[in-house]
Design a protein that fits this description.
It is built from nine helices and seven strands. It has a five-stranded parallel β-sheet with strand order 2-3-1-4-7, with helices on both faces. It is globular. The termini are close together. The structure holds adenosine monophosphate. Adenosine monophosphate (AMP) binds next to helix 2 and helix 3.
Amino acid sequence: MSLVLLGPPGAGKGTQAARISQALGLVHLSSGDILRAEGKASSELGRQAKDYMDRGVLVPDDLILSMMMDHIRRPDAAKGFLLDGFPRTLAQAQGLDARLAEWGRTLDVVISIEVDDALAIKRLTGRMSCPKCGRIYHETFSPPAQPGRCDVCGEALIRRKDDSPEVVGQRLKTYHQETQPLIAYYQEKGVLRPVCGAGGVDEVTAAISKECQAR
Ligand code: AMP
């Protein structure tokens, strides 16, 4: 199965992608996580992407497309993959479709997780994550048992630099300008399934699972 999770920053894509990919046995490919790993490894790609990421604007399409296709092509993704944070522009979506078509494949389902800007801002500016295991917390909605420490591995939790209020505003603006048009693109292709992202984590997971089963 090939699945895309679409939605603004703060929709809960990362949290839902981890749960859904595990439940369905799919490889979870998060463009943001891959870019952050490249940054940590000080690779050329990580270096090129850093400035864009810090400003909350998009990394150029050609860099992203070749990076993601490199992961989609790997043997572990052959049984199925879940794309999270990619594609984010019409050019990326068209590039992805063209490359999948070369292998006789298409996207099966595109889930659009819908949340309004006010909720997205609340979620992002209170978000914390564990640098070791990647678990995501929120200071109000899902706080760790011990303040500032991961429940799983005890590591000190960190906040992403681009979750600051100023950068969050830019990321939402970028989403509305560049990514929102993909909703109509996938609707036209008949693969779009909208899901309300405003509920609790379990509720949203159940709604996404239902759409995946109904395809
Ligand atoms: P995310 O973790 O998905 O919020 O992504 C963090 C940042 O990585 C974004 O603000 C962009 O700068 C960059 N990024 C992630 N995915 C993409 C993409 N598909 N296209 C361009 N830039 C991306």
